[in-house]
């Protein structure tokens, strides 16, 4: 199962802070796991890691119920690529008829979602809010402002999102995947010897919101409880930036690999920074062999499909090079 080199990393349909799309191959080529147990990911976020790893059995959980409902809805067919295409096309037209102020249709969808949460509006918000952020106020209401692009849902973006839904739906088929809203503790404590825990908790004290609280105590608890699990684990965490080192890594036993990683906050060049990303892997689960020996999952052949909306030919390409894939990181 792992390690594997993925020639064509794909991007999930929703975004969140700390999304790992740019680190997928770093993760999948560093871990050694036979895939006989369950891939357990208690901080699933956008799903980028599990959807690219594609284990046969998985428990994919998060404390954010909107994320879990969204993926359950794709899994049980409540949301299909066709439904998403129709919805985004209609909503995109309504959005384009309003301006980029507080009067924007975006805020109508946000209010509607906060009154009556549903997966389609959640997708709309995730793909038209500022910087693809996911943040909720004290009452649990989505509170990210509009990206201020009334023409956001042009045909090309709708096609891209529809293809992302199609991809997620296809990879779920025939797999034993459970999406569940749970606190990480409950999920980690049920791990069994053949399982593998991929842990990507929030950054301490940053990006916290209603569903996403993470304190020093949480970080300590995770270090203590996860290391008692009878299976392998890998923890993603920043190792160091220009100013400091992450002392929380010292609480973990295992072997650490790092990768420098550029992130940006907003569009300004000054806000770009480099951070070293760590993967702390339990002893005996780090791949130490030759990189040339790692099996490659080849890039699938590009299929050319008819875009019914535009009557044009579109490429089924949802690779990470898409400019739409924001990386929102705030350390
Ligand atoms: C850094 S993000 C994960 C990013 C993900 N690996 C990706 O690539 O998109 C952390 C996630 O942890 C979730 N989370 C925060 N506190 C949690 C808790 N106590 N239990 C479970 N999940 C939690 C957040 O909702 C968020 O989705």
Model description:
This protein has 331 residues and is of the alpha/beta class. The chain has 2 domains: 194 residues, Rossmann fold; 84 residues, Adenine-specific Methyltransferase, domain 2. It has 9 helices and 11 strands. Helix 5 packs antiparallel against helix 6. The longest helix has 18 residues. It is globular. Bound molecules: S-adenosylmethionine (SAM). The site of S-adenosylmethionine has 21 residues, from helix 2. The site of S-adenosylmethionine (SAM) has 21 residues, from helix 2. Belongs to the N(4)/N(6)-methyltransferase family.
Largest sheet: 7 strands, mixed
pLDDT < 50 stretches: 306-317, 321-331
Number of strands: 11
Structural class: alpha/beta
Ions, cofactors and other ligands present here are: S-adenosylmethionine
Strand content: 15-25%
Number of domains: 2
- What is the name of the CATH architecture of the largest domain? 3-Layer(aba) Sandwich
Q: Percent of residues in helical segments?
A: 25-40%
Number of helices: 9
Enzyme class: transferase
Protein name: Site-specific DNA-methyltransferase (adenine-specific)
Family: Belongs to the N(4)/N(6)-methyltransferase family.
InterPro entries: Ade_MeTrfase_dom_2, DNA_methylase_N6_adenine_CS, M_m6A_EcoRV, MeTrfase_D12, SAM-dependent_MTases_sf
């Amino acid at each position: 199962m792992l390690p594997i080199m993925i020639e064509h990393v794909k991007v999930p349909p929703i975004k969140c802070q700390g999304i790992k799309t740019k680190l997928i191959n770093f993760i999948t080529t560093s871990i050694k796991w036979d895939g006989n147990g369950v891939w357990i990911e208690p901080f699933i976020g956008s799903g980028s890691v599990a959807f690219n790893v594609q284990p046969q059995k998985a428990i994919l959980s998060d404390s954010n119920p909107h994320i879990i409902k969204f993926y359950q809805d794709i899994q049980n067919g409540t949301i299909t690529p066709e439904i998403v295409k129709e919805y985004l096309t209609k909503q995109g037209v309504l959005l384009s008829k309003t301006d980029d102020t507080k009067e924007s249709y975006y805020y109508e969808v946000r209010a509607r979602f906060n009154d009556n949460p549903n997966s389609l509006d959640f997708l709309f918000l995730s793909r038209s809010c500022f910087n693809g952020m996911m943040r909720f106020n004290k009452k649990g209401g989505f509170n990210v402002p509009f990206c201020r692009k009334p023409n956001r849902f042009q045909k090309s973006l709708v096609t891209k999102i529809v293809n992302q839904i199609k991809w997620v739906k296809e990879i779920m088929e025939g797999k034993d995947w459970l999406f569940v809203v749970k606190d990480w503790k409950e999920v980690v404590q049920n791990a069994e010897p053949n399982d593998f825990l991929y842990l990507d908790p929030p950054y301490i004290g940053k990006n916290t919101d209603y569903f996403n609280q993470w304190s020093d105590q949480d970080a300590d608890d995770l270090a203590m409880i996860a290391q008692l699990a009878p299976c392998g684990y890998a923890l993603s965490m920043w190792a160091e930036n220009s100013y400091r080192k992450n002392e929380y890594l010292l609480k973990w036993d295992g072997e650490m690999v790092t990768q420098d990683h550029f992130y940006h906050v907003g569009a300004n060049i000054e806000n770009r920074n480099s951070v070293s990303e760590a993967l702390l892997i339990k002893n005996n689960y780090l791949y130490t062999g030759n990189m040339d020996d790692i099996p490659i999952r080849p890039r699938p052949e590009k299929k050319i499909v008819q875009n019914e909306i535009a009557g044009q030919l579109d490429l089924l390409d949802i690779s990470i090079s898409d400019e739409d894939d924001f990386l929102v990181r705030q350390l």
